[in-house]
Amino acid sequence: MKYGALYGVGVGPGAPDLLTLRAVETLKRADVIALPRGSDYGASMAWRIIEPVVGKRSDQERLFLTFPMSKEPARLRRAWDVAFARIGERLENGRSVAFATEGDPSLYSTFGYLHREAQRRWPGVQVEVIPGVSSVTAVPAVLGAPLADGMERIAIIPANYGVEDLVAILNAFDTTILMKIGSEMPKVVEALERTGLLHKAAYVAKATMPEQKVATDLRAVRTERGDCFAMVVVARRERSGVLAGDVSAQAALSEV
Ligand SMILES: C[S@@+](CC[C@H](N)C(=O)[O-])C[C@H]1O[C@@H](n2cnc3c(N)ncnc32)[C@H](O)[C@@H]1O
Questions:
Q1: Over the stretch 71-108, which tens digit does the pLDDT of each residue have?
Q2: Domain ranges of the chain
Q3: Ligand 1 in contact with 12 (CB < 6 A)?
Protein backbone atom coordinates (compact mmCIF):
# COMPACT_ATOMS: atom_id res chain seq x y z
CA MET A 1 0.00 0.00 0.00
CA LYS A 2 1.21 3.53 -0.73
CA TYR A 3 0.70 5.57 2.39
CA GLY A 4 0.78 9.34 2.72
CA ALA A 5 3.96 10.66 4.37
CA LEU A 6 4.13 11.22 8.13
CA TYR A 7 6.02 14.21 9.53
CA GLY A 8 6.94 14.91 13.15
CA VAL A 9 7.23 18.69 13.19
CA GLY A 10 8.88 20.54 16.09
CA VAL A 11 7.08 23.87 16.45
CA GLY A 12 9.41 25.44 19.02
CA PRO A 13 8.87 26.61 22.60
CA GLY A 14 6.03 29.09 22.11
CA ALA A 15 6.84 32.20 20.08
CA PRO A 16 5.59 31.69 16.50
CA ASP A 17 8.68 33.43 15.10
CA LEU A 18 10.79 30.60 16.53
CA LEU A 19 9.24 28.17 14.04
CA THR A 20 11.83 27.07 11.50
CA LEU A 21 11.33 27.70 7.77
CA ARG A 22 11.24 23.92 7.21
CA ALA A 23 8.55 23.48 9.86
CA VAL A 24 6.38 26.18 8.28
CA GLU A 25 6.85 24.77 4.80
CA THR A 26 6.01 21.21 5.94
CA LEU A 27 2.96 22.32 7.90
CA LYS A 28 1.63 24.36 4.97
CA ARG A 29 2.17 21.51 2.50
CA ALA A 30 0.57 18.71 4.56
CA ASP A 31 -2.96 17.50 3.82
CA VAL A 32 -3.62 17.05 7.55
CA ILE A 33 -2.12 18.79 10.59
CA ALA A 34 -2.39 16.55 13.67
CA LEU A 35 -2.51 18.56 16.91
CA PRO A 36 -2.08 17.03 20.37
CA ARG A 37 -4.00 18.51 23.30
CA GLY A 38 -4.42 17.58 26.95
CA SER A 39 -8.20 17.26 27.03
CA ASP A 40 -11.15 17.11 24.62
CA TYR A 41 -12.13 20.66 25.55
CA GLY A 42 -8.68 22.18 26.07
CA ALA A 43 -6.65 24.17 23.58
CA SER A 44 -3.72 22.69 21.71
CA MET A 45 -0.48 24.52 22.49
CA ALA A 46 0.94 23.38 19.15
CA TRP A 47 -2.02 24.99 17.32
CA ARG A 48 -1.67 28.18 19.35
CA ILE A 49 1.98 28.41 18.24
CA ILE A 50 1.44 27.70 14.54
CA GLU A 51 -1.93 29.37 13.90
CA PRO A 52 -0.55 32.90 13.32
CA VAL A 53 1.85 31.55 10.70
CA VAL A 54 -0.05 28.66 9.11
CA GLY A 55 -3.68 29.82 9.51
CA LYS A 56 -6.91 27.87 8.96
CA ARG A 57 -7.46 26.67 5.41
CA SER A 58 -10.54 24.97 3.99
CA ASP A 59 -8.41 22.51 1.96
CA GLN A 60 -6.39 21.37 4.99
CA GLU A 61 -7.70 19.30 7.88
CA ARG A 62 -6.86 20.04 11.52
CA LEU A 63 -7.02 16.78 13.42
CA PHE A 64 -7.12 17.37 17.20
CA LEU A 65 -5.96 14.35 19.20
CA THR A 66 -6.41 14.13 22.96
CA PHE A 67 -3.58 12.75 25.11
CA PRO A 68 -4.49 13.07 28.80
CA MET A 69 -1.81 14.36 31.19
CA SER A 70 -1.50 11.00 32.86
CA LYS A 71 1.16 8.41 33.69
CA GLU A 72 -1.47 5.65 33.78
CA PRO A 73 -0.63 3.22 30.91
CA ALA A 74 -4.26 2.06 30.39
CA ARG A 75 -5.55 5.64 29.94
CA LEU A 76 -2.70 6.51 27.62
CA ARG A 77 -3.16 3.31 25.59
CA ARG A 78 -6.83 4.17 25.00
CA ALA A 79 -5.84 7.65 23.78
CA TRP A 80 -3.17 6.19 21.51
CA ASP A 81 -5.56 3.60 20.03
CA VAL A 82 -7.85 6.43 18.95
CA ALA A 83 -4.92 8.50 17.63
CA PHE A 84 -3.47 5.59 15.63
CA ALA A 85 -6.85 4.80 14.09
CA ARG A 86 -7.48 8.42 13.07
CA ILE A 87 -3.97 9.05 11.73
CA GLY A 88 -3.88 5.61 10.04
CA GLU A 89 -7.13 6.23 8.19
CA ARG A 90 -5.66 9.36 6.63
CA LEU A 91 -2.28 7.82 5.76
CA GLU A 92 -4.06 4.83 4.16
CA ASN A 93 -6.00 7.27 1.98
CA GLY A 94 -2.67 8.63 0.71
CA ARG A 95 -2.92 11.89 2.69
CA SER A 96 0.19 13.37 4.30
CA VAL A 97 0.00 14.02 8.04
CA ALA A 98 2.16 16.60 9.86
CA PHE A 99 2.09 15.91 13.59
CA ALA A 100 2.89 19.25 15.27
CA THR A 101 4.70 18.92 18.56
CA GLU A 102 5.86 21.59 21.00
CA GLY A 103 9.62 22.19 21.14
CA ASP A 104 11.62 19.45 19.42
CA PRO A 105 10.10 16.05 18.48
CA SER A 106 13.03 14.07 19.91
CA LEU A 107 12.69 15.25 23.50
CA TYR A 108 9.83 13.92 25.66
CA SER A 109 7.48 14.43 22.76
CA THR A 110 4.12 12.85 22.02
CA PHE A 111 5.53 12.17 18.57
CA GLY A 112 8.13 9.74 20.00
CA TYR A 113 5.66 6.87 20.42
CA LEU A 114 4.07 7.50 17.02
CA HIS A 115 7.53 7.43 15.43
CA ARG A 116 8.42 4.10 17.10
CA GLU A 117 5.12 2.48 16.07
CA ALA A 118 4.80 3.88 12.53
CA GLN A 119 6.70 1.18 10.60
CA ARG A 120 4.93 -1.64 12.44
CA ARG A 121 1.48 -0.22 11.74
CA TRP A 122 2.09 1.17 8.26
CA PRO A 123 5.00 -0.79 6.74
CA GLY A 124 7.09 1.28 4.36
CA VAL A 125 5.51 4.60 5.38
CA GLN A 126 7.83 7.58 4.84
CA VAL A 127 8.55 9.26 8.18
CA GLU A 128 10.46 12.51 8.49
CA VAL A 129 11.37 14.44 11.62
CA ILE A 130 11.61 18.22 11.40
CA PRO A 131 13.66 19.47 14.36
CA GLY A 132 12.43 22.42 16.38
CA VAL A 133 13.84 24.89 18.90
CA SER A 134 13.64 23.01 22.19
CA SER A 135 12.74 24.53 25.54
CA VAL A 136 16.17 23.24 26.59
CA THR A 137 17.77 25.94 24.45
CA ALA A 138 14.97 28.53 24.63
CA VAL A 139 15.10 28.80 28.44
CA PRO A 140 18.84 29.69 28.61
CA ALA A 141 18.20 32.30 25.91
CA VAL A 142 15.51 33.83 28.13
CA LEU A 143 17.86 33.71 31.12
CA GLY A 144 20.70 35.21 29.08
CA ALA A 145 23.14 32.58 30.31
CA PRO A 146 24.74 29.57 28.61
CA LEU A 147 23.79 26.04 29.64
CA ALA A 148 27.29 24.67 29.45
CA ASP A 149 30.67 25.80 28.35
CA GLY A 150 34.05 24.10 27.89
CA MET A 151 34.24 20.98 30.04
CA GLU A 152 30.89 21.36 31.80
CA ARG A 153 28.47 18.42 31.82
CA ILE A 154 24.67 18.59 31.67
CA ALA A 155 21.94 16.37 33.13
CA ILE A 156 18.30 16.50 31.99
CA ILE A 157 15.76 15.15 34.49
CA PRO A 158 11.99 14.60 34.06
CA ALA A 159 11.12 15.65 37.62
CA ASN A 160 7.61 14.14 37.70
CA TYR A 161 9.17 10.65 37.48
CA GLY A 162 11.01 11.19 40.76
CA VAL A 163 13.64 13.49 42.24
CA GLU A 164 14.83 11.23 45.07
CA ASP A 165 18.36 11.15 43.62
CA LEU A 166 18.43 14.88 42.85
CA VAL A 167 21.10 15.76 45.44
CA ALA A 168 23.50 13.24 43.86
CA ILE A 169 22.74 14.55 40.37
CA LEU A 170 23.21 18.17 41.41
CA ASN A 171 26.58 17.24 42.87
CA ALA A 172 27.67 15.20 39.84
CA PHE A 173 26.81 17.63 37.02
CA ASP A 174 27.74 21.24 36.31
CA THR A 175 24.28 22.05 34.94
CA THR A 176 21.04 20.28 35.82
CA ILE A 177 17.83 20.87 33.85
CA LEU A 178 14.59 19.84 35.51
CA MET A 179 11.69 19.43 33.10
CA LYS A 180 8.10 18.27 33.75
CA ILE A 181 8.13 19.81 37.22
CA GLY A 182 4.49 18.94 37.99
CA SER A 183 4.03 19.00 41.77
CA GLU A 184 7.70 18.39 42.56
CA MET A 185 8.73 22.01 43.23
CA PRO A 186 8.85 21.66 47.05
CA LYS A 187 11.22 18.66 46.74
CA VAL A 188 13.33 20.48 44.14
CA VAL A 189 13.71 23.53 46.41
CA GLU A 190 14.56 21.27 49.36
CA ALA A 191 17.34 19.52 47.38
CA LEU A 192 18.72 22.90 46.28
CA GLU A 193 18.78 24.10 49.89
CA ARG A 194 20.54 20.91 51.01
CA THR A 195 23.25 21.30 48.37
CA GLY A 196 23.63 25.06 48.87
CA LEU A 197 22.74 25.62 45.22
CA LEU A 198 19.53 27.60 45.61
CA HIS A 199 21.22 30.81 44.45
CA LYS A 200 22.45 29.03 41.30
CA ALA A 201 18.94 28.03 40.18
CA ALA A 202 16.36 29.76 38.01
CA TYR A 203 12.73 28.91 37.20
CA VAL A 204 11.20 29.76 33.84
CA ALA A 205 7.57 29.07 32.91
CA LYS A 206 6.16 29.49 29.39
CA ALA A 207 9.46 30.73 27.96
CA THR A 208 9.03 32.93 24.85
CA MET A 209 5.22 33.07 25.30
CA PRO A 210 3.36 36.25 26.31
CA GLU A 211 2.77 34.74 29.81
CA GLN A 212 6.48 34.05 30.35
CA LYS A 213 7.49 34.03 34.02
CA VAL A 214 11.04 34.03 35.40
CA ALA A 215 11.99 33.54 39.06
CA THR A 216 15.55 33.64 40.32
CA ASP A 217 14.58 33.04 43.95
CA LEU A 218 12.94 29.62 43.82
CA ARG A 219 11.51 30.02 47.31
CA ALA A 220 8.99 32.41 45.70
CA VAL A 221 7.69 29.62 43.45
CA ARG A 222 8.11 26.77 45.95
CA THR A 223 4.38 26.11 45.99
CA GLU A 224 3.87 26.52 42.22
CA ARG A 225 2.02 23.49 40.86
CA GLY A 226 0.81 22.14 37.63
CA ASP A 227 2.30 24.57 35.12
CA CYS A 228 2.88 22.19 32.22
CA PHE A 229 5.50 24.45 30.67
CA ALA A 230 7.96 25.15 33.47
CA MET A 231 11.63 24.34 33.85
CA VAL A 232 14.31 24.77 36.49
CA VAL A 233 17.94 25.25 35.46
CA VAL A 234 20.71 24.88 38.02
CA ALA A 235 24.10 26.01 36.76
CA ARG A 236 27.06 25.77 39.14
CA ARG A 237 29.42 27.63 36.76
CA GLU A 238 32.53 26.49 38.60
CA ARG A 239 34.27 25.16 35.49
CA SER A 240 32.95 27.52 32.78
CA GLY A 241 35.07 28.29 29.77
CA VAL A 242 38.06 26.45 28.33
CA LEU A 243 40.37 28.95 30.01
CA ALA A 244 38.93 28.26 33.47
CA GLY A 245 40.07 24.64 33.69
CA ASP A 246 43.37 23.27 34.90
CA VAL A 247 46.35 22.98 32.57
CA SER A 248 45.95 19.24 31.90
CA ALA A 249 42.31 19.72 30.85
CA GLN A 250 43.34 22.50 28.47
CA ALA A 251 46.11 20.35 27.03
CA ALA A 252 43.62 17.50 26.49
CA LEU A 253 41.28 19.85 24.68
CA SER A 254 44.01 21.18 22.39
CA GLU A 255 44.78 17.60 21.33
CA VAL A 256 41.19 16.99 20.15
C1 LIG B 1 6.53 16.95 27.35
S2 LIG B 1 7.95 17.94 27.53
C3 LIG B 1 8.16 18.49 25.88
C4 LIG B 1 9.51 19.09 25.63
C5 LIG B 1 9.63 19.62 24.21
N6 LIG B 1 9.59 18.54 23.24
C7 LIG B 1 10.88 20.45 24.00
O8 LIG B 1 11.72 20.10 23.17
O9 LIG B 1 10.99 21.49 24.66
C10 LIG B 1 7.26 19.31 28.33
C11 LIG B 1 8.25 20.00 29.26
O12 LIG B 1 9.13 20.82 28.49
C13 LIG B 1 9.42 22.00 29.21
N14 LIG B 1 8.94 23.13 28.39
C15 LIG B 1 8.38 23.05 27.19
N16 LIG B 1 8.13 24.27 26.70
C17 LIG B 1 8.54 25.16 27.64
C18 LIG B 1 8.55 26.57 27.72
N19 LIG B 1 8.09 27.32 26.72
N20 LIG B 1 9.06 27.15 28.83
C21 LIG B 1 9.56 26.40 29.83
N22 LIG B 1 9.58 25.05 29.80
C23 LIG B 1 9.07 24.43 28.73
C24 LIG B 1 8.72 21.92 30.54
O25 LIG B 1 9.62 21.38 31.48
C26 LIG B 1 7.61 20.94 30.24
O27 LIG B 1 7.18 20.27 31.40
A1: 888 888 999 999 999 999 999 999 999 999 999 999 99
A2: 6-130, 135-235
A3: no
Cβ–ligand 1 distance for 13 under 6 Å, the answer yes
Integer-rounded Cα radius of gyration of the chain: 20
Domain 135-235: state its class.
alpha beta
243 confidence band (pLDDT: 50, 70, 90): low
Nearest ligand 1 atom to the CA of 179 is 25
pLDDT of residue 248: 54
Cα 139 to averaged position of ligand 1 atoms, centre (Å)? 9
Q: Above 90 in pLDDT, residue 239?
A: no
Distance 158 CA to ligand 1 centre (A): 10
Question: Hey, which of 179, 183, 214, 234 would you mutate to test ligand 1's pocket, going by the most ligand atoms within 8 Å of its Cβ?
Answer: 179
**pTM: predicted TM-score of the whole model, two decimal places:** 0.92
Q: Which residues contact 201 (CB under 8 A, 6 or more apart)?
A: 192, 216, 218, 232, 233, 234
Superfamily name with CATH number, domain 6-130 = Tetrapyrrole methylase, N-terminal domain (3.40.1010.10)
Please tell me the predicted confidence (pLDDT) of residue 72: 86
